[in-house]
Amino acid sequence: MDAIKQYMKPKWWLTGVGTIFTIFMLLTYAGIMNAAETGWGADNYDERDVFYEKAWAATFFLVALITIVSGQFIEGRAQAILAITIGGGNILVFILTFLAADGLDYGYTGDPANWAPPMIMAAGLLVSGFLHLEEE
């Protein structure tokens, strides 16, 4: 168990996941990554879809920044609780998104290459927090 805890420190999971999410949210918001096209297909989106994908990115940008700050400036049990909260919250958002997208042929829920990496990162945050919950 000590070996697992060594690699599952909330500080580094929060910092790493927050950094990755920040980069992807900025790329999406800046239009470098066309999230609307990925989500709806090259011939099946309009400027409203682009807006909603950018709004989604802006919302998650805040979560990404909170994740980085939690990794760098909070310690001990509080940091573990934040890792659990952010990881669990992201998993809940993924589940709700899957339910909302049912039958819509939405690219982010239909292709595991799009949803598996962030789901694994969220699960890593959750586990890292649970493993270190009893630390001061």
Average pLDDT value? Answer: 94
Helix content: over 70%
Shape: elongated
Taking pLDDT < 50 over at least 5 consecutive residues as the criterion, the unreliable ranges are none
Question: Please, could you describe this protein's structure?
Answer:
The chain is mainly α. Helices cover 79% and strands 0% of the residues. The protein has 7 helices and no strands. Helix 2 runs antiparallel to helix 7 (112-131) and helix 5 runs antiparallel to helix 7. The two termini are 18 Å apart. 24% of the residues are buried. The model has no long low-confidence stretch (mean pLDDT 94).
List the helices and strands and how they pair.
Elements: H1 2-7, H2 10-29, H3 35-40, H4 47-73, H5 76-100, H6 107-110, H7 112-131
Helix pairs in contact: 2-4, 2-7, 4-5, 5-7
